[in-house]
Amino acid sequence: MSWMSVEAAAAALIAGRTVAFPTETVYGLGGDARNAEAVQAIFNAKGRPSDNPLIVHVESMEAAIAIAMELNVIELELMQRFWPGALTIVLPVRRGVLAAEVTAGLDTVGIRVPSHPVALELLRTCKLPIAAPSANRSGKPSPTTAQHVQDDLGARIAGVIDGGACDVGLESTVVRVVNGKIHILRPGGVTIEQLLAHGYEAIYVRELEDSASVPRSPGVKYTHYAPQAEMEVWIGQHGFNIGLAELLKNECMAFQGDGQRIACLLFQDTFQTVGELKNVRMFSLGDRNQPENAAHDLYAFLRTCDQEGITRIIAEGCTEEGAGLAFMNRLLKASGHRMRLV
Ligand code: AMP
Ligand code: MG
């Protein structure tokens, strides 16, 4: 793999190869969405199950309309209001425009216009719809730096454009408009509050997350974002409290007795109260009232834990307001829904 310029990456995409590029959410692994072999190469590089559809990135609303059909007023408004940005809209796909593999055989496609200037420049240069899931090996935390991509996909892809660290740090919000209501299939960079503020009815369709249920959207049934360590999410029922800090110290000591290498991901107030714990790797998630900071750092922290051979992670949860909803969604998935109310 090599570090690429936008021009080289565009040429590689046109030639049917796969390249990783920065977006405002996470790094994407792109391929020409019309080219079945290129799309297959994305699935192969990631080790992704073929029934998990890919999001298609385009440069403009017009380019989206060329791929999707039967758009209603709300869908058009969402495009105007939130694009370019971290909102993926699931729409009926026109027949024969994209490789069938992109949609995993569904009659819908998830589309968005990213806002990262490098992603936009790449799309404008290659003039292709680009299928791009996150540029990580399937199941691992998504990459938020070019180095993360290199670590995961190395020789498996043609190259990566280095655009620095991603702003949001978590994936896009995936929505579908059903009978005039916005169903959030996956919470992400655009919050439910932002959608409600425009007067839309929006609900988070939680049952889709349940891996035991029959998925209505294939992508939601797989485990995701997981570090190598066993991870438990601690949910303080009253936010920060002293009792939580005490419990945490005791728990860490007990685990260390078992020879575990422990890491704690804590909001700043808890972090400060607990203080440094001997032989425990401590990460601050920042202010619990600004969960976008926690969202921004989560995947990078989980990857650091993997690199440092951490075997046990205790991560503090927060309320599901604003960016907290997407953060908690990823945290719970990363932990296999292991949680403890404290
Ligand atoms: P990623 O794994 O980061 O590529 O995320 C892709 C997400 O978009 C998955 O959670 C998919 O379920 C969702 N998605 C993509 N295309 C569709 C679609 N046609 N219908 C429903 N969900 C989709
Ligand atoms: Mg992904």
Quick rundown:
The chain is α/β, with parallel strands linked by helices and about 350 residues long. The protein is about 30% helix and about 20% strand.
What does this 3D model show about the protein?
The chain has 342 residues and is an alpha/beta fold. The chain folds into 2 domains: 2-204, DHBP synthase (Alpha-Beta Complex), CATH 3.90.870.10; 230-341, 3-Layer(aba) Sandwich (Rossmann fold). Helix content is 32%, strand content 20%. The strands form 2 sheets. The chain has an 11-stranded mixed β-sheet with strand order 1-8-2-3-7-4-6-5-9-10-11, with helices on both faces. 51% of the residues are buried. The structure holds adenosine monophosphate and magnesium ion (MG).
